[in-house]
Design a protein that fits this description.
The structure is a homodimer. Chain A is an alpha/beta fold. Chain A has a single domain, classed as Aldolase class I (TIM Barrel, Alpha-Beta Barrel). Chain A has an eight-stranded parallel β-barrel with strand order 1-2-3-4-5-8-9-10, surrounded by six helices. In chain A, strands 6-7 form a two-stranded antiparallel sheet. The two termini of chain A are 28 Å apart.
């Protein structure tokens, strides 16, 4: 099962997810100035980061918005990036946060679990309820695909709705429990289900509460580095069991800017991944 | 302001939104059998429907999932369809239901308010709160772009979260009121704001309650035809003021199947639009 593979990758390589939220302004100067298309530039950038980090990480996450913003050319770079990661034998999470129902969600499933944009995991928005999740089950049943559903996001205004009290609990807890329950039909040997959860790290205490109520859930944590959240916070969550991967994007893929704008800029990315790993793993020894 | 233009179109042409949720299986046989790419097939199909209906409708809605499902080729057809509608001087709503925050939402704004995939309106998911809405304001301020935010969806499992009680009201009412409030900074002469709402028609009484609390909101109603909701239900909402457009997709673009599989299949689409208009407008005379 793909979730068991991800769990194993996280245990063996460390729980690091590199976020390829690539924008043109992140590119080193040598590449920006090259006389090639934006598609080629974005892909070359991603390829160089992947080549220098794949032995250190559990998986990659690719934020489709950054590529959609460049239209068809951007999406060609997106397609090639996903393919390159999967051909390397690594797991890729397509951060698409799609949220639609029945026949429309089936179309999204087709779009992101097969064809040009095939990924191993996708992220999904639960506002429309189970109908927004279940259309993906057909693919989950192959054991080769999984999803991460938004439980609790780390942005300031997540309080607008996610913190509203329903019964005696905030909405995000109700959502989290439902997602954990829906995942029970898709449990792997690791004890985790193919229906994972996205939980931000802004409030570490809350995260522990969610974790305690969602025993089957493997988490995608978006909040390391630029979005806040320390290695110690992450380690507290992973202490009993390696139940999450932690994403960092800008902290890794933009770190070379102003430091190394040359062909070997990716040495900086590698260094940043090593630092992030140590920042987390030091608390787990 | 684009919302005033939409209001005017709805008043003058009737509140009809044709949903170009085009799938290969909807295509008439003559087109399916043609020796051209899927991109060409999808675009020719859409173009024929647009050409035969644009004088009867307020706007078009294009469901991006159907095109994403066909990968890059599908998205080329999506791009050409949007461009074709806008070049005809008609309004197009990109049904993308994106929901992400800050810098990522800015990327989605760039993706769908300029460049290859430029639309007039987009649909957005509010689960992440105001941070998922405000990144689009930059474009709203030009008065040329607008958005429809999910308030209350019409699917069965919308009850999972949207009906949960917060305070003395269901969550969807809290969400609706917030969205109406956020829109107050973007009011047009029509009295409607550039921040519209998506509300399903499964429960007409509920819709009236939402409408009464959201005086600035222009609505996109997805629920006519295949998803339920009658002309009479729609008319009750529009009686005082033309405050919505009503989308129908399959009921219009699939109606020719088994009836007319030839080049003039779009005569059936036109007929179905006329019937839908009459079904609604008969109650408004």
């Amino acid at each position: 099962m793909i979730i068991d593979r991800l769990y194993k990758e996280a245990k063996e390589n460390g729980p690091i997810c590199v976020g390829l939220d690539t924008r043109l302004e992140y590119l080193p100067e040598y590449l920006l100035n090259k006389d090639i298309s934006n598609e080629e530039k974005l892909f070359e950038f991603n390829k160089k980061i992947i080549d220098k980090t794949f032995d250190l990480v559990a998986c990659y996450k690719v934020q489709i918005a950054c590529y959609e913003a460049l239209g068809l050319e951007g999406l060609k770079a997106y397609q090639r990036t996903l393919k390159y990661i999967r051909n390397k034998g690594k797991i890729v999470i397509a951060d698409i946060k799609r949220g639609d129902i029945s026949s429309t969600a089936e179309m999204y499933a087709k779009a992101h679990f097969e064809g040009d944009f095939e990924a191993d995991f996708i992220t999904v928005n639960p506002y429309m309820g189970k109908d927004a999740i279940s259309p993906y089950y057909k693919y989950l049943k192959t054991n080769k695909k999984g999803m991460f559903v938004l439980m609790r996001t780390s942005n300031k205004s997540s309080e607008d709705f996610q913190e509203l009290e329903v019964g005696n609990e905030p909405l995000y807890m109700e959502v989290s429990k439902k997602i954990d329950e829906w995942g029970k039909d898709f449990l792997g040997e690791s004890g985790f289900s193919l229906v994972g959860g996205v939980v931000g790290l802004t409030y570490p205490e809350e995260f522990l509460k969610i974790k305690n109520k969602c025993k089957n859930t493997f988490f995608l944590i978006p909040g390391y580095g630029a979005q806040g959240g320390t290695g110690k916070d992450v380690a507290r969550i992973l202490k009993e069991k390696m139940c999450a991967v932690v994403n960092s994007s800008r902290g890794i893929i933009k770190a070379h800017k102003g430091i190394n704008e040359d062909k070997d800029f990716n040495e900086v990315s590698r260094q940043k991944v090593l630092e992030m790993k140590e920042d987390i793993l030091q608390w787990l020894r």
